[in-house]
């Protein structure tokens, strides 16, 4: 293991196995959505819904995907 460098360590620390002064990697915190999914992205939701009523689901793929991208940007896992 002496050949591996630890994140934020110097080569001397890696060789000696010392990790003093090296902070462990912090886990990435996923942000919790600030809104309910029904209230997020009203613009794309309206466009998606209107398109689906008039033309059907198969003709509205671009609006459906735009709404999904907006929801993901708001922190939802869809």
How does this structure look, described?
Helix 2 (42-55) packs antiparallel against helix 3 (61-73). Helices cover 42% and strands 0% of the residues. It starts with 10 loop residues before the first helix and ends in a 5-residue tail after the last helix. With 78 residues, it is an all-alpha fold. The model has no long low-confidence stretch (mean pLDDT 77).
**Main pleated-sheet profile:** none
Instruction: Write the H/E string, N to C.
Output: HHH
The outline comes out as: elongated
β-strand percent reads: under 5%
The overall average pLDDT, rounded, is 77
Helices, by number, come to 3
> Spans of 5+ residues with little confidence (pLDDT < 50)?
none
- E-strand count: 0
Content-based structural category: mainly alpha
Distance between the termini: 41 Å
Provide key terms for this protein.
single chain, 78 residues, mainly alpha, 0% strand, elongated, copper ion binding, copper chaperone activity, chaperone, copper
Helix-strand layout with pairing:
Elements: H1 11-16, H2 42-55, H3 61-73
Keywords: Chaperone, Copper, Disulfide bond, Metal-binding, Mitochondrion
Main location: mitochondrion
Subcellular location: Mitochondrion intermembrane space
